[in-house]
Amino acid sequence: MPKTKEGTEEIETCPECGSHHLVRDYERGELICEDCGLVLDDQFIDQGPEWRAFDVEQGEKRARTGAPMTYTIHDKGLSTEISWKNKDSYGKSIPTRNRAQLYRLRKWQRRIRVSNATERNLAFALSELDRMASSMGLPRNVRETAAMIYRKAVNKNLIRGRSIEGVVAASLYAACRQCGVPRTLDEVAGSSRVGRKEIGRTYRFMTRELKLKLMPTKPQDYVQRFCSELKLSGEVQSKAAEILKDASEKELTSGRGPTGVAAAAIYISSILCNERRTQREVADVAGVTEVTIRNRYKELTEKLGIEIQL
User: Fold this and answer.
1) Which residue, among 287, 269, 268, 290, has the nearest Cα to 279 in the 3D structure?
2) pLDDT tens track for 115-127
3) Less Cβ crowding at N or C end of the chain, within 10 Å?
4) Rounded to two decimals, what is the model's pTM?
5) What is the C-alpha to C-alpha distance for residues 259 and 183, in angstroms, rounded to an integer?
6) Which pairs from 285-293 meet CB under 8 Å and 24+ separation?
7) Same domain as 126, residue 206
8) Does a structural domain hold residue 42?
């Protein structure tokens, strides 16, 4: 008889013949009596074995689906791909006489995936975007956001008359700001094949046309990354955040470059926490000059009443 366990119905015997020989057919999703052939359940859920994976090898063995949809591939990763390995679905080597046919199939598969001008543009631009993001060490969500911004620009025909690299760099810069992982124009230009001026010009044009609402970057957004690159402790980071909070309350950060103010706050906090870094070291990491750090440092110490023993 049917037996209820924790709110789910678990059938142990066949109600027709009373047999205990029940078979779970996971391909059809059915629960069948082996003796009389009665289908007891036609919407049977495959509970399966343990699917958690603790390393890459286990993940590949236990994977039951393909890769997720992604905007960083021109066809969103939904098309099929013929592997370069000369093996069939069972892992057996393909006979030599069939390899020429497989080579032709692979070649046509590549051609079919990129069929028109828009797809060719996306394929080149998104591969360039991935290269730049990898060079800058940006996380996955920033890449996806940048790909979405670039796709919107393509749909609005904003690419015409502009270099693909410039629009890609501007999309990546906008995505960094949108996701709260800010990078300076100089950093983006360093990983791109276009200049800082062109990226800035394209970025301003895209934000106007696509109506991107991006808040100005704050000095606080840079503190964590700069402290990490300078190998400073969490104490220095929290002290720099306190200094910047006091500075913003007294309106000392408005009208000044956020990287310069962040660099000066880190320089002050490194001295206060006895983890001193030179102005040259901080300037190199922040991408500003030593003069900028000195000016901001003097402003902050005077207006906030911070005493430092040099």
Assistant:
1) 290
2) 778 888 888 999 9
3) C
4) 0.67
5) 10
6) 285/226, 285/229, 285/230, 286/222, 286/226, 286/259, 286/260, 286/262, 287/184, 287/186, 287/187, 287/259, 288/257, 288/259, 288/260, 288/263, 292/257, 292/260, 292/263, 292/264, 293/260, 293/263, 293/264, 293/267
7) yes
8) yes
